[in-house]
Amino acid sequence: MTGAVAGVVHLRERRPEVSGTEMVAALVPPPQFDDATFDTYRADPHYPSQQEAKDLLIAFSRGGAPAERGGLFRRAKKAPEMKPGVYLDGGFGVGKTHLLASIYHAMPARRKYFGSFIEYTALVGALGYQKTVELFRGADLLCIDEFELDDPGDTMVMTRLLGELVPTGTKLAATSNTPPNALGEGRFAAQDFLREIHAMASSFQTIRIDGTDYRQRALDGHAVTLDDAGYRTAITDAAAHAVVSDDAFGDLVAHLATVHPSRYLRLIDGVGMIGLRDVTTLEDQSAALRLVAFVDRAYDAQIPVRATGQALDAVFSDEMLAGGYRKKYLRAISRLNALTHS
C-alpha cells in the first residue's frame, strides 16, 4: 500500500499477507528509531540507572566493558568482558527501545537483526524452526524488543532458538514486556526471566533502567477525543494529502482477530492517520491484548490517531488494569495518549 493515492481506506477491509522473505527484510528498527544513537538518548539525572545503563550498553556495543582510565604514563586496566546478552529491564517510557536501537546502529556487525518478539515467533511459524535457525546462524546481533512471557510455548521456542545461536557467537540484546502484578512492585523480575531461559541464564546480564514515562512528561491530561463534526473535519483534511483510515472501533477490534499480530504493521502500511469512531471500553482480554499489539505497531510507525466516543486512555477496563497484564495496558495507554496529541 506504500505510495497509495491520498484518500480514505478502511482497515477492516485489508487482508495483509507477508512472506518469510518480507518478514526477514523487516527486521530493522522502526522508522522512529532510524537515527537513534546513544548520543540522542537523554538520561534523566534523577535516575542514575539510566546513565549507568547507557554506559554499559555503549561498552557492550564495542564488544566488552570499558577500560578503566589510567594516568598519563599508567596503562589502563581492562575491565571484565560482558556477557553475550544484555536484558533491559524497566518500566514503559524510560527509553529501552531507543537504547536497543542504539545498540543496533552502534555495533559494527556484518549481519544484525532488530524485531519484536512477535515478529521473531511469527518468522518461526512461517519458515519452521530449523530454517529459522539456519537463517540466523552466524548473525552477529539479534535485538528483541518486548520479550514476551505470556505464551509459554512461544517463550520456549524463542529461548531454544537463542540457545542455539549464542554458542555460535551471536550477541543478544532484549527488552522486557512482562505482566507486573504477579511479580511485585509493578516491575519486571529478572529472576523470573532467567528461570524461563534457564539454559541461557549465564548468557545474559540484566540491566535495570528506572525512570518515569517520558511521553507523559511532555503531555497534559488525557487522550484527545473529538466530537463527530471535529472527527469528520480531521479525516477530510488529512485525506486531501495522505491516506487516512476510517473505521468503527468495534469493527477494527473484530478484524484484528482475523489478522496475525505479525501482520499488523502491514495492515497500516501507507496510512498517514488512523481514524476510530465510537470507541468503547473493552471487556474481553484477548481483544484487548490484540489492540495492544496494534497500538505498538502504530506507535512504531508514528501514525497519529483521531477518535470519537470513549477516550482511548480509558479503553481498558478497571478489571484489566488491575490484572496480570497491567504493564502492557499502561504502555498502550501512554502510546495512545501520545498519538492522539500528535
From TrEMBL:
It comes from the Bacteria. GO terms for molecular function: ATP binding; ATP hydrolysis activity. Pfam families: AFG1_ATPase. GO terms for cellular component: cytoplasm. InterPro entries: ATPase_AFG1-like, P-loop_NTPase. GO terms for biological process: cell division. This is Cell division protein ZapE. It comes from Microbacterium aurum.
